[in-house]
């Protein structure tokens, strides 16, 4: 059977589902940029790309050289094509307008150019996460306020994971497809045709070193997971923590599980560590399209009305039954106050 490349899949989506040509072009350009990032990441020490860049991002976090390189690859790949009105990146303070010498388009692209960058120097999995919004009608120079759309308005989302394989996972709003990079062809080839997350699971992902800082509902739930078949959940659980959201989400899309990054008391004024626009919204869109669920412990993440471009959020996502349980524990605790 002939292999279905990303290009063929996207052309068939246009023919069968009316996917706009500009959106198809956008996804192809992002995929090409992810190929370039995969190449840069794989060079490691040989490419002089390890270590810190000597700068901080808007979050006040030290930027890795590859954070900056990946961000530039995505900007340069996307700014000239005429499909975008603007871009926004976790690594940049504010909106990146399309330079005046280039035409503008109907979409806005948001990305975390290299998620999990603390894994770079230890050769751990890292990835690129992206989200596509429509530019509001009549807006030619979108500003920050135009990006503040709830995740439910996304028209596409995806990630590339740079692990033993480079895999691109993509949703256009009708299911989730996975494409593996064939380095000999230089093409992403369809290898995961219909991703479904099992409703039940026996695997959880959380950074348990923060346990003493969690809210009571999270402590209650994780204690039950650790109690296994001796506790109320009546079965044993396994634990994984890749410290790169793309890696944990990819495992969940592959075999189920629940991923948690809750609010914790270390920075009580922040709702969580993960970013709503660049990490939580695209990953929640993908997870829901694969039959899973995603909340901030109290409400569906995709329904959250953003108030700032770099807003953070608590994240509980994955197998529906487990996400519903931990969300119920939060709501019960709130009701008991
Ligand atoms: P970095 O990009 O700074 O490595 O952070 C990655 C991340 O945003 C997300 O991808 C991980 O799930 C999470 O942070 C890991 O956080 P901890 O290092 O606190 O476990």
TrEMBL record:
SUPFAM superfamilies: Carbohydrate phosphatase (SSF56655). It is found in: Cytoplasm. Substrate binds at residues 115-118, 207, 273. Pfam families: FBPase (PF00316), FBPase_C (PF18913). Mg(2+) 2 binds at residues 112, 115, 279. PANTHER family: FRUCTOSE-1,6-BISPHOSPHATASE-RELATED, SEDOHEPTULOSE-1,7-BISPHOSPHATASE, CHLOROPLASTIC. This is Fructose-1,6-bisphosphatase class 1. It comes from Leeia aquatica. The gene is fbp.
